[in-house]
Design a protein that fits this description.
The structure holds 2 protein chains of 2 kinds. By secondary structure, chain A is α+β, with helices and mostly antiparallel strands. Chain A has 13 helices and 14 strands. Chain A has helices at 13-23, 36-41, 77-82, 84-89, 91-98, 103-108, 111-117, 124-131, 148-151, 224-230, 235-243, 246-253, 263-281, and strands spanning 6-8, 27-30, 49-52, 62-65, 68-72, 134-139, 142-147, 152-154, 157-158, 165-172, 178-186, 191-202, 205-214, 221-222. Chain A has a 5-stranded antiparallel β-sheet. In chain A, strands 11-12-13-14 form a 4-stranded antiparallel β-sheet, with helices on both faces. In chain A, strands 1-3-2 form a 3-stranded parallel β-sheet, with helices on one face. In chain A, helix 5 (91-98) runs antiparallel to helix 8. Chain B is of the alpha+beta class. In chain B, 25% of the residues lie in helices and 25% in strands. Chain B contains 18 helices and 30 strands. In chain B, helix 6 (220-227) packs across helix 7 (252-264), helix 9 (318-327) runs parallel beside helix 10 and helix 14 crosses helix 15. The chains are: A alpha+beta, B alpha+beta. The interface between A and B is medium-sized, with 23 and 26 residues.
């Protein structure tokens, strides 16, 4: 049950940071509330004051600049999912955004809010890691960019300082010849496991690849060693390499048994979804399977 | 029979329906919050509520040490009659010295605001001595296990056994013997409206209560005993109920707030949260180990079954669940010899109670999976194998002798009044069983077909009383105490009243249950309402009709026998009279009562069962062989309704039961760990979603107008739920050759059964 609280509507990002500095612990950033209000309703998190950044104009809009798509932190998942620019240039992100929660959650929740909450069972971080996005942050010392891989720290943990707010997410469009794919399975509204892959195929070989696994560990993770193993491999050999990756995946993702399934189930499904994503990114109709 | 609109449907789809939580609060209403044990097993030491009492806005706190202050008749606490939910249980209305499950009720706080009450309930300081918890029935029965109820001496709550024929000789001479073990976990009903809420108001020397329940009388006896009132001083109303499924009982929480209302003279409202609702009641976890002996022609000779039942922290529903499980252990199969032994154990889980088709869903999953598995192992068509071994229409089961718990029991097993071959034929045709599905075993998907069959023996015992009153405006009011828990009880009453009297349904008004009518009913449960309340309403309306004709004859002429009712008006030859005129002639109204009873013959093997209620489901599933995900593509359910009284309500019952069965089959499990209940909300407890329900979902009825209910109707409410789990398991086997032996069939279990998961990654 929600306890009464006040909502403050700063007009700019610096004003929002100013309010956070002024109010300290009693304030929380509101950017759609898809996660925040749930926690407050269950009494897990309390705030006397919400600083609403969702209405700040500079946190809105989706634009292309020099091969990078700038997405305002206050843009809703629904807007991203349906945005023609994102659908055309960042199809795997559009796919990930379209899977979040349900349509009511997507109409309310924002990309910035989702990233800052840092739930391990989230979809956007997995896709953004495959694209190599940067997170633009406004804080006490002004504006700075944090690569997504540095931004994500752990379960409900980011690289943000308490007074920081995320203003924008800059997502580079993949170079020519690259394709990306996002895959997910779920039992509840949040994903059980998701993967994202970006790859380029040349002459039947992997000429470039990024592999990302989400939900199993405390945060979405780039699988660089596995990338190195399949880099340069013939497509026909890739499935064997992936099939032998369970030990590496276990080491990287540190799976635990929980209500979603056993550690071995999660690793199995992660591998299956990596194969599917790689297969789609490489244009193999039935996935990269043995 | 009737294809009219459900009487509740307009209120519900327009949001006008008033549920307990929506009731306007009388002036001065206080709000209650429960004090609960956060531990699954703990001794309760000192309780200090002074911090909670000091919170501004808190009006009172009741717990173990304050019972006398609230004039609770402490001497009555341990009496059987006080036991909540059902007559025979050891569940006190609050626990005093020991908490036996996560959520055990220790007391209540009332305050002028619900937020204050809930915050203060967290500020009651209690010394708990934490004890090791038991979450598994086999662990609870193991030597050296901690004892939940010291006075009982062991965690074995009860045993139940039946035996007929010569099981041992049958196994000795069998050509084939097969065996299987099947488990079903604890699951929760999850009605949309939380369980156990209520509004109570002690005023004018009467305790008046409103609450969502399937039986308003369930509060009367405990409240009157504990509060020192006459039963006439307790009056219970039942507004719209947002789902029951066995979860909606009057509970200890309402007794506590009743005592507080009596002492404080203020109305008190208690609304449970979803997390608390999960801690009211549950479905029993069971492990069924069955062995089957067959002759060389694949005819069943005997079965030998061992059943382990987990009743949770208190006895609550143990007797009914265990007896139901044992008396359905062989389903609708022809069984020359049979032996079944059940042991029921206490564990530190939510006390299990009634759950739609209590005790039989778990057994049906096991039995019909085992039979399907035998057919496959003998390389026989699973449908032909069933038809060869199932009782046929009119067949008397070859039961030659029976003992229950060592005592001889009279056999009262009626011949089968239904035809499985027809039900199976219809269900299979609906999913096109004979066609190889297009995507079968291509790519990563495998598609399979399966059926599930169940047999329920009619309605339970009980009594029903109804009053039919002709009003001066020509309408007829039916007074009764059958809460409509969402299944259509009031629609059924409307159809029966209108059909019996010969008036249109719009002329019938079905009243809201109120114990002040002085019309007893055993409760909307156990598939009894259509048979028992339906017949009570029929008898009331027949008696009313006779009275109407008498009054018509004396005031308007002719003999009573000359009068008839057509289309809502009385007529004698060409003479047409509005019914209101006849009511006026009788002084403004005419009324009559109807009563119907099926007594509980406990010495009989089948008590009071008056008909059979079979169910059949045929299903097509798709298994993703890489991820283990199962999707139901087509589902056909078939029931023998005798006569369908209202098509949309009957269809809703069959669909709702099947979908609830999907939940148990594919998703649902109440999980415990680290001493606590882990998933008491819909974010972590997976319920069936709309997207899980196939477009190809068909509901079919057989109507031979041969049931004991009004117009030849039978009970159907619980016929579809038991078929879902075995049908889906059997279809998964057909698709991928892997036998699922425990619900829910999670992707992980499917992969494990397929041998796809390595033990250690």
């Amino acid at each position: 049950m929600l306890r009464p609280f006040k909502v403050i509507h700063p007009g700019t990002a610096p004003d929002a940071v100013g309010e956070l500095v002024r109010l300290g612990d009693q304030a929380k950033v509101y950017a759609g509330g898809a996660e925040l209000i749930l926690l407050m309703r269950h009494g897990i998190l309390q705030a006397d004051c919400l600083v609403d950044v969702k209405r700040i104009p500079e946190l809105h809009g989706i634009q292309a600049h020099n091969g990078t798509i700038h997405i305002g932190a206050g843009v809703t998942h629904r807007e991203i999912e349906n945005d023609p620019l994102v659908r055309e240039r960042l199809p795997a992100l559009a796919d990930a955004e379209g899977h979040i929660g349900n349509v009511r959650v997507r109409a309310q929740g924002t990309l910035g809010g989702n990233l800052c909450f840092a739930d391990p069972h989230a979809d956007p971080p997995t896709a953004l890691l495959a694209y190599g996005a940067d997170v633009q942050v406004w804080g006490r010392t002004g504006e700075r960019a944090i690569p997504i891989d540095k931004f994500l720290v752990g379960t409900y943990e980011t690289a943000l300082e308490p007074e920081d707010i995320v203003t924008r997410i800059d997502v580079p469009v993949l170079p020519d010849g690259w394709r990306a794919s996002f895959q997910r399975i779920e039992r509840f509204q949040r994903p059980t496991v998701n993967t994202a892959v970006a790859a380029r195929v040349q002459d039947g070989h992997i000429a470039g690849v990024r592999l990302v696994a989400g939900c199993v560990g405390p945060r979405a993770t780039r699988l660089t060693e596995l990338e190195n193993r399949i880099q340069g491999q013939a497509l026909a050999d890739v499935s064997r390499t992936l099939a032998q990756s369970d030990a590496y995946l276990t080491e990287m993702l540190d799976p635990v048994d929980d209500l979603l399934g056993s550690a071995s189930y999660k690793i199995h499904v992660t591998r299956v979804l990596l194969q599917r994503a790689l297969g789609e990114a490489c244009g193999i109709p039935n996935g990269a399977h043995a | 029979m009737a294809d009219g609109e459900r009487v509740d449907i307009r209120d519900k789809v327009t949001g006008r329906a008033i549920y307990t939580e929506d009731l306007p609060e009388p002036p001065g209403t206080l709000f209650a919050a429960a004090i609960r044990s956060p531990y699954s097993h703990a001794n309760v030491g000192a309780i200090d509520s002074s911090r909670a009492e000091a919170v501004p806005g808190v009006v009172a706190v009741l717990h173990r040490d304050k019972l006398a202050e609230f004039d609770v008749q402490i001497d009555e606490i341990d009496k059987d009659a006080l036991h909540m939910n059902l007559a025979a249980t050891d569940n006190p209305f609050i626990t005093r010295f020991k908490a036996r499950y996560d959520g055990d009720l220790l007391g209540m706080v009332v305050a002028r605001d619900i937020r204050i009450a809930r915050a203060a309930a967290q500020m009651v300081d209690i010394d708990f001595e934490i004890l090791p918890p038991l979450f598994d029935a086999a662990d609870a029965l193991a030597p050296g296990a901690p004892i939940l109820h010291e006075e009982h001496g062991s965690n074995l709550a009860m045993t139940e056994s039946i035996h007929w024929g010569d099981v041992d000789s049958a196994f000795a001479s069998a050509a084939h013997v097969f065996e299987g073990t099947f488990t079903s976990p604890t699951i929760f009903h999850h009605p949309m409206e939380p369980a156990m809420s209520g509004l109570v108001h002690f005023h004018h020397d009467v305790l008046e209560a409103w609450g969502p329940t399937n039986n308003p009388f369930s509060l009367v006896e405990p409240a009157s005993l504990l509060l020192g009132l006459d039963e006439e001083q307790v009056r219970v109303h039942v507004p719209y109920v947002g789902g029951n499924f066995g979860a909606k009982h009057m509970t200890g929480e309402l007794v506590v707030v009743s005592a507080m209302s009596k002492k404080l003279g203020r109305p008190i409202k208690y609304v449970a949260t979803e997390e608390e609702s999960f801690r009211v009641t549950a479905r029993h976890a069971m492990t069924y180990r069955g062995r089957v002996a067959l002759d060389a022609d694949a005819r069943i000779l005997a079965m030998d079954v061992d059943l382990l039942v987990d009743t949770g922290a208190y006895f609550t529903g143990a007797a009914i669940a265990t007896q139901n499980a044992v008396s359905s252990g062989w389903g609708g199969y022809r069984m020359p010899s049979f032996r079944m032994m059940a042991r029921t154990a206490y564990t530190n889980k939510v006390p299990a109670g009634m759950f739609r088709n209590t005790g039989k869903n778990q057994v049906t999953f096991a039995l019909d999976s085992l039979m399907d598995s035998i057919a496959h192992q003998l390389d026989l068509n699973p449908i032909e194998f069933r038809l060869q071994n199932m009782l046929q229409h009119g067949e008397q089961a070859s039961v030659t002798g029976w003992t229950r718990n060592g005592k001889d029991v009279k056999i009262d097993y009626p011949p089968l009044d239904t035809d499985y071959s027809k039900l199976i034929d219809i269900a299979c045709r609906e999913i096109r069983w004979d066609r190889q599905p297009a995507a079968r075993n291509e790519g990563r998907f495998a598609v399979g077909h399966g059926i599930g069959v169940s047999l329920r023996r009619g309605a339970s015992f009980g009594d029903a009383n109804a009053r039919a009153r002709l009003n001066a405006d020509g309408s007829v009011t039916i007074e009764h105490n059958a809460p409509d828990v969402g299944e259509g009880a009031h629609t059924m009453i409307s159809v029966v009243a209108a059909g019996t009297l010969g008036i249109p349904e719009r002329q019938v008004h079905v009243a809201e249950p109120d114990t002040n009518y002085n019309l007893h009913f055993s409760g909307t449960s156990s598939q009894r309402t259509t048979i028992q309340m339906g017949n009570a309403v029929r008898l009331a309306c027949e008696a009313l009709q006779a009275e109407i004709f008498k009054v018509a004859a004396s005031s308007l002429g002719g003999n009573a026998a000359d009068w008839q009712i057509h289309d809502g008006r009385a007529c004698r030859g060409d003479q047409l009279v509005e019914l209101g005129v006849i009511a006026e002639n009788a002084g403004g109204m005419i009324e009559a009562v109807g009563s119907y009873e099926r007594s509980n013959r406990v010495d009989h093997a089948f008590g009071s069962r008056d008909h059979f209620a079979p169910g059949v489901a045929a299903v097509e599933v798709e298994v993703d062989c890489e991820t283990g995900d199962v999707r139901v593509l087509k589902y056909a359910a078939c029931a023998d309704a005798g006569t369908v009284l209202n098509y949309s309500a009957a269809k809703g019952q069959i669909e709702g039961g099947a979908i609830m069965g999907f939940g148990a089959a594919l998703f649902e499990e109440v999980s415990y760990g680290e001493g606590q209940l882990l998933n008491a909300d819909a974010f972590q407890y997976r319920l069936p979603h709309l997207s899980d329900i196939p477009e190809g979902f068909s509901v079919n009825f057989i109507e031979n107008h041969d049931g004991p209910g009004p117009f030849g109707s039978k009970g159907i409410a619980q016929t579809s739920i038991p078929c879902a789990a075995p049908a889906i398991a059997n279809a998964i086997f057909d698709a991928v050759g892997a036998r699922l032996t425990s619900t829910p069939f999670t992707p992980q279990k499917v992969l494990e059964a397929m041998g796809e998961l390595k033990e250690k990654p």
